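Example 9 (inverse folding). The structure is encoded as follows.
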């Protein structure tokens, strides 16, 4: 049924079977054309973060206590942490 405004309603129409699928004409793919997938650096970083182990709360608590006592910060410790982080990111 089709409705054309408030004044005219089209009457019932016949029922037809399903339409046949339209197929594209078969033509060979162009030579030298390939699909390509590109994964962003952000996606790689997120995937790396997902694969990290769970947080070990006892280690975190020990580090917080050492920071509060002033025993954790040292140039050598900072340098070692930065080097480990860069090694993992590269």
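The amino acid assigned to each position is listed next.
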């Amino acid at each position: 049924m089709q409705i054309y405004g408030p004044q005219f309603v089209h009457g019932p129409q016949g029922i037809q079977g399903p339409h046949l699928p339209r197929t594209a004409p078969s033509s060979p793919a162009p030579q030298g054309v390939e699909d390509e997938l590109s994964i962003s650096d952000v996606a790689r970083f997120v995937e790396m973060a997902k694969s990290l182990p769970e947080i070990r709360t006892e280690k975190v608590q020990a580090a917080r206590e050492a920071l509060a006592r002033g025993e954790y910060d040292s140039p050598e410790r900072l340098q070692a942490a930065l080097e480990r982080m860069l090694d993992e990111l590269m």
